[in-house]
Amino acid sequence: MLPEQNQPAHSSSESAESIAVSGRLKWFDIARGFGFLVAESPPIGDVLVHFSVLHPHGRTHLPEGARLNCVAVRGERGFQAREIVAIDLAEAVIPAPRRRNPDRVDPASLLDQAGDIEHASVKWFNRLKGYGFLIRARDNADVFVHMETLRRAGISEVAPGQLLRARIFDGPKGPLAVLVEPEE
Q1: How far apart are CA 176 and CA 167, in angstroms?
Q2: CA within 20 to 30 Å of 32's CA: 52, 61, 96, 139, which one?
């Protein structure tokens, strides 16, 4: 019951008979662009809901549990929503917004407590995760470095072995780079 390459399957079903369906959204995968509605009236099973039918409502996805009224057509792989008539989010499961970690400390706020500028090299850095580690030259200690610290220095890319200069705060969780600059 999966659409071919995230494309709506209405091409072959445009001439098929349409039926009015109401039910609750079982799940919706934002990355893949579709989900399934459990039809309650009439009880026809699952109905594919492709993101393209949500566009007229200004949406690209829906939360689990949303109640929908739609027009569906039967295709080769089962029923698919061709048009969404109404969306009710009153009983939908809306995920709580991610809260900022209250224990997170902005490295820039620790600048006055950091040591003098010293030499370091990049051990590794993962842009997707937004952090990495440097190796402090004087003792080969791992030093945590956050992407924001690099951005403040105007550094957009780093590579393993690259030489930098850093001011390092030795905190309770270990050494933290609070300021970095390119090695000249």
Answers
A1: 8
A2: 96
